[in-house]
């Protein structure tokens, strides 16, 4: 699985990542993602080939993208974006490394501009990502994802 994923922020050195997966976010909440700090406007890249599922603006996540991989088994969540890449739309096929958005600080942000990035392995028989398995992206990138 790891060989298929690209660090999704252009120019970020994987050795400077910080593991924020499972950090406390209030009394009952855990952070099921990592935050990748970068200057506002830094390109956000598709982590793998797949399809854009949803483009939305959420209260907590701000400007957000949902992307599935080509197999349909993994869902990627990119949020706090400043804007989408020109022409990006739901249903669009993307290739690993395509610019899909730009780093920002929209929504409920702690600290400066960053990409909140999560990976969920979806259940075999359901697209409900709330029932999926959250995967720590930090461990994949630390292991040397090409």
Describe this structure in words.
The protein has one helix and nine strands, in the order βββββββββα. The mean pLDDT is 83. Strands 1, 2, 3, 4, 5, 6, 7, 8 and 9 form a nine-stranded antiparallel beta sheet that branches. It has one domain: Glucose Permease (Domain IIA) (Distorted Sandwich). 32% of the residues are buried. The protein has 146 residues and is mainly β. The longest helix has 6 residues, at 137-142. Helices cover 4% and strands 36% of the residues.
Number of helices: 1
Order of helices and strands: EEEEEEEEEH
User: What is the CA–CA distance across the termini?
Assistant: 12 Å
Classification by helices and strands: mainly beta
Q: Profile the largest sheet.
A: 9 strands, antiparallel
List how many beta strands DSSP finds. Answer: 9
Annotate the secondary structure layout.
Layout lengths: L33 E4 L5 E3 L4 E9 L3 E8 L4 E11 L8 E2 L4 E5 L10 E8 L11 E3 L1 H6 L4
Quick structural overview:
The chain has one helix and nine strands; from the N terminus they run βββββββββα.
Notable features of this structure?
146 residues; mainly beta
